Amino acid sequence: MPILKGKDILHGNQFTKKDVETILKVASEFERELKKKDTLPLLKGKILATLFYEPSTRTRLSFEAAIQRLGGGAIGMGAVESSSVAKGETLVDTIRTVSQYADVIVLRHPRTGSAKEAAEATSIPVINAGDGAGQHPTQALLDVYTIRQELGTLKNLTISLVGDLKNGRTVHALVEVLSLFQSKLYFVSPDLLRMPEEITSNLRGKGVKIVETEDMMEAARASHLIYMTRIQKERFADLSEYEKVKGSFIIDQTFLEKLNKKVTILHPLPRVDEIHPDVDAYPGAAYFRQMRNGIFIRMALLAMIFGKR
After folding, report:
1. pLDDT in tens, 158-206
2. Is residue 275 part of a domain?
3. Same structural domain for residues 57 and 72?
C-alpha cells in the first residue's frame, strides 16, 4: 500500500527516513515532468479545500497550484469574517461541513493541536498548514527538498536555525525531519525565544548534536546552511516583549563579508528585516527557489494521498 494513501499529514515526526526519501523522489519527478507539460491529470475530479484562519500567501497558493497542476480543483473558505466562523461555528462543525464538498482539506489555524482535532472530526485527509506555534510539516518537506538541491545531500550537515525558535512552527517541523539525517543543529535565538525544551530534549534523545547560542556569526561559521526565521510579532501577548527582541538577527552584505565563506540561506518567508534585500543577489540566497519547491512537494503529497504515486 502506498505510504501516504488516505493519510493525514499533521506533524514532522510522522515520517520515517524512507518516507522522506520517497516523497522527495516523487517531488523531483513532478519537477521534471512540469518542464514538459503544464498539467498532469492524475487527480481529475478531486477537490482540495483550503481553510485558512490565519494569513497565508505561499502555502495557500502553492497548494491550490499543486492540485490544479494535477488536474483537480480547489475551493476556499475565504476570509474568516465572511464565513460561518464569524457566527460562532466551531472548527469541528466547519470541518464536518467542508468534508461534504471536498476530498482533502488543508488547514491553517492559530491554535496548536487544531489540525489533529480537525483530522479526528472527518474521514477525509487533513493536511496541517500550520497550527499556531505547533507544526508545519509540508514546509519542512519542501525545506529538505531545497537543502538537498542546494547542497547535494541531506547527510551529516551542520545547520543553523535562527530567530523565533519558540513560536516557529516551520523550525519545529524541520528539526524532526533533519533528525533523520544525522544533522548537527545550531539553535540561534534570544533567550526569550529559545527552542522549546521538549523539542531539544527529544532531539538529544535521538542522538542529535545541538548547540544553543545567541552568537549567529559563530554558528554561521560552523554551518553549511542558515535557516532564518522572522520574529513573530503576532505571537506576543505583550508587545513590549516583542520590542526587546525584534531585529535581533540580521543577514546583510556586511554580515556576509565578515562571514567570509559561502553559505546557503533559506527562509520560510515572509521576511521582515532579518534578511536585507541586498542579499537577494547572493548566490547562496535560496529562499525564492525554496518557495517554488513548495509546488513540487505539495503535488507529491497530494498525489500520494490519493494513491496516484
Report:
1. 999 999 999 999 999 999 999 999 999 999 999 989 999 999 999 999 9
2. yes
3. yes
| Rg value, the chain, Cα | 19
Residue 2 lies in a domain: no
Residue 1 in this model has a pLDDT that exceeds 70: no
For residue 79, the model assigns a pLDDT of 66
Q: Which three cell numbers stand for residue 92?
A: 469541528
Q: Is position 5 within any domain?
A: no
How many other C-beta atoms can be found within 10 angstroms of the C-beta atom of residue 60?
Answer: 18
Q: Which residue, 288, 292, 283, is CA-closest to 263? A: 283
Cα 238 to Cα 66: distance, rounded to the nearest angstrom: 38
- 145: domain range? 137-290
**Amino acid letter at 47?**
I
* 34 half-sphere exposure, CB direction, 13 A CA radius: 19
| CA nearest to 302, candidates 27, 15, 97 | 27
* The model's pTM: 0.94
Same domain, 147 and 39: no
| 286 plus 253 within the same structural domain | yes
Please check whether residue 199 lies inside any domain of the structure: yes
